[in-house]
Design brief:
Blueprint lengths: L2 H6 L8 E5 L4 E5 L6 H4 L5 E7 L3 E3 L4 E6 L5 E6 L2 E6 L12 E3 L6 E2 L4 E5 L1 H7 L5 E5 L5 E6 L5 E2 L4 E7 L1
Antiparallel strand pairs: 1-14, 2-3, 2-13, 3-11, 4-10, 5-6, 5-9, 6-7, 7-11, 8-10, 12-14
Keywords: Kinase, Phosphotransferase system, Sugar transport, Transferase, Transport
Main location: cytoplasm
GO biological process, one term: phosphoenolpyruvate-dependent sugar phosphotransferase system
Length: 167
């Protein structure tokens, strides 16, 4: 504990839980319902997915954009100890960014509710395998578990959807 924290009686407080807000308007489903084994079998991590009603993706957390995929359909976000991957649609990589308008870059700090991407939902329905959009914690070794609060419910932007319990 440093001098100033002793002086003011403040210790570093480690966040024990991270709340994830809804990053899309739509229906929340269990990660095991995603029609892709990489997500459904939790190969990349645990989480949940949203079936979107409109083509807009916002940040579920305050943090840093650590990756924007070149094909514009997926984002890595770091919030404290938690690293998230949000993947818009399934097999959207084959669209090569068509219909996607990214609003952030790697290294950007983002706030909850900040727009990351707008996209043509109808085009994704037409050209990709599915519009379902998973959000997974990719560094599962740092967390104890995820509690999805709104399973099988429709959510609007920035509603509390899940909590991630840290080790």
């Amino acid at each position: 504990m440093g001098f100033l924290s002793k002086l003011f009686g403040k210790e570093e407080v480690k966040t024990e839980e991270l709340v994830l807000k809804s990053y899309m308007k739509g229906k929340v489903v269990d990660i095991t319902e995603v029609p892709d084994p990489v997500f459904a079998q939790k190969m990349m991590g645990d989480g949940f997915a949203i079936i979107p009603e409109e083509g807009k993706l916002i940040s579920p957390v305050a943090g840093e954009i650590i990756q924007v995929f070149p094909t514009k359909h997926a984002f890595g976000i770091k919030a404290g100890e938690v690293e998230l991957l949000i993947h818009v649609g399934l097999e959207t990589v084959s669209m090569k960014g068509e219909g996607f308008d990214v609003k952030v870059s790697a290294g950007d700090r983002v706030e909850v509710g900040q727009t990351l991407l707008t996209y043509d939902l109808e085009l994704v329905k037409e050209k990709a395998k599915d519009v379902i959009t998973p959000c997974v914690v990719t560094n599962m070794d740092a967390i104890e578990g995820i509690n999805v609060l709104k399973l099988n419910e429709n959510v609007d932007f920035s509603q509390e959807v899940a909590s991630v319990k840290l080790k």
